[in-house]
## 1
Amino acid sequence: MSVKINARLNASVDRAALLWAPRAWIGGAWHDSVVLQADASGRWARIESGQPAPAAATVLPGPALPGLVNAHSHAFQRAFAGQAERRTGAHDDFWSWRDRMYGVALTLTPARLREVARTLYRELLAGGFTQVCEFHYLHHDEQGRRYAEPAAMAEALIAAAADTGIGLTLLPVLYERAGFAASALREDQRRFAADAGFVLELREAASARRGVLAGVAIHSLRAAAPASIDALLARLQGDAAPVHVHVAEQTAEVDDCLAAHGARPIEWLCRRFAPDPRWQLVHATHATPAEIDAVAACGAGVVICPSTEANLGDGVPDLPRWLAAGVPLAIGTDSHVQRAANAELRWLEYAQRLALRRRNVAAEPARYEGRTAAALFERCLAGGAAAAGLGARGLVAGARADLVVLDAQAGGLDTAQTEDVLDAWVFATDTPAVAQTWVAGRRVV
Ligand SMILES: [Zn+2]
């Protein structure tokens, strides 16, 4: 597939690879007076605390955090945010929301998708994310035919990422049936059809693009036949690319999987497909303790999407058990009803507090002074890197030079004690409270 869209980098082209932060979050703790130097390839070359600002350094205006990965996004759904908050019948649930969402999916062109994604990616950068994993299934034209340029919709996402400067992990999605017992897609799913061959074609096209990481995704166990998943996995042997899958988001999916396979979705996934650390189980809302142990044993990660799962009435994940089992954890904004990292981390913890009637559920008392925000941030920093295929992450030499500079004047941060800044960012702000965002050594917000 040839590339038809010449993405242009519009973001600021500051070349200030030498920065100085009054405080920076390094290895799970605040450090003062930090020199941060990126090399020409956009990776951290030197990070040193307790240093005066070099004369040539750009002085950052507030505390600096590593950028988080947004590990689950359907960018096109940003066009639909806020448009499904009405109930006109006796009942409303995930499935009626999905029917309405399909209506929006059927109208988007590549040009419109690029606009929507550009708006979204600017919001994500301003919300503390520096990398986004696109779970991309809106492949074909309005009639369900391949575009003349088959990757046209993927290219729209790649162009939007380049327009804004956000890092992109593109995950083309295997999608071929409407349910466990269905042999084909529904008519209103016609734009999504993709077999293993098409997924790999898109992945190859995306991998060839500078700065784009590419993996694959399986829409769900209900939407792809086992033989097709086998065919996709067979082509990825020895390949480190991430493999994402929606799983156990809704109880109806659990019931349907039990009826089709005599096992729950995560149970069956672990038994039938032998997932490994490349795998990212998106949502995994309805998981038994035995299923959580099975995921922990295989090394796969979990991606929780707190605001979307609340918006769609999915349920509350067993976060204490996922954390105790040591499963890598990441967050995603999925349908994009919220787009800021601090708000997602807050809702990840708040759902637990509401359900369990306890406080500081995610905290690890023996680490980070028992601070919940630090425990969640560190888990999601590492888990997000794995989900995106990014490798080393954080303010360490060799990691991509990503940085989020907090707005120290923002409400909630303005009155925070210095040691409480991360806690205040997650739990006491009404806004993203981000002053600047840097990706690969370049300022993009
Ligand atoms: Zn999703």
## 2
Amino acid sequence: MTASARGWRVSYHRGAEYEIRKCAELFNPSNESLLSVGRRRRSRRFVVVDENFHRLHSGAIRRYFADNEVDVRIVSVPAGEPNKSVEAYVSLLDALDQFPIDRRDEPIIAIGGGVITDLTGFVAGTYRRGVPHIRVPTTLMGYVDASVGIKTGVNLRGHKNRVGAFTPPARVLLDRSFLATLPRRHILNGVCEVFKLAVISDLALFEKLEAHGPDCIAAHFQDEPGLWILDRSIQRMLDELQLNLFEDELARKMDFGHTFSYGLETCADSQCLHGEAVLIDVLVSSTLAQSRGLLKRSELDRIVRLAFALDIIPPLHSLDPPALWESLLERTRHRNGWQRVPLPHGIGKCTFVNDVQQDEVRTSCVELMALSRV
Ligand SMILES: NC(=O)c1ccc[n+]([C@@H]2O[C@H](COP(=O)([O-])OP(=O)(O)OC[C@H]3O[C@@H](n4cnc5c(N)ncnc54)[C@H](O)[C@@H]3O)[C@@H](O)[C@H]2O)c1
């Protein structure tokens, strides 16, 4: 602290450190991972579990804590975008407050997809101004993306993640076997994020998807090329996030896919999942990049061909250029007045632009609709 005649200047720098640990048989009572943070003896845990996942694993979860003699309160919560709400947040806070936990030694545990880990992480980040939490992703979206960073939050009045915080988890536990029961649409939803990562940051990942993507999808990523793709995606994600964990820099490669279709999934008419909205953006952005000479025509064709092969191409007939433009304007405010639009500059490389015109967005939509009909 420095003092002067005019007042005081306070300065305190706090970092973030957490481990993302791969594990198997997470609910085997002899597996210590879930209790590896905080106190074990005579302790309590507040556990928030995705409702559908809970239906499949409630017995195993309950047995795990009983066998380890931990006093547990399990709250089963419905997922899906409409449940990532202020109301759900308040209701979880209420439940937590009726099951008091020690502030440092009894971490909250979130088990579910991105909706559950974003929501529970926000509860953990704000209850008593912050208690530790552990994340256990059970969807592909959660596994490669939502659980590994530090962003948490809920939607407000149709605006995605409008209320939230940077809340580093105490630990992230990855058990790939949970993906086995995920419905195909949600596997594909996660694949859209992997596809995004490949196009903007990793040619080798793109090539692996070309060679093995459809088989990995069929096997729900339970076999060897699937493991490689999952590990590589997390590595790429962390390469980007770790350098800019608190988003001091607003031009972010990982914002690829989040410019033109922001909030599509909170719009009741669209029925879009998060990854599906991201994919629409990836395709529009890639078409726009091609028209600017950043991508070769053959590269754009290759991107569209892979999206078809992975079976992730969304219905594009109803692309709405004015809505995409509105989304860009909204994102420009979010990015503090500059567009900072990430575009692929060749497959696997990124550049940022600040001068996208409304006409360009419209032309890209028309071209993309034509391309996707070929
Ligand atoms: N914090 C971040 O950095 C970040 C990054 C990416 C996405 N997100 C957020 O993640 C959310 C989307 O997450 P999501 O796609 O995981 O959706 P989700 O959490 O709604 O889960 C999708 C569906 O899968 C079901 N489910 C979950 N695990 C299952 C399993 N193992 N077996 C069977 N069914 C299962 C759920 O009940 C739900 O119906 C969005 O709100 C998005 O904004 C956050």
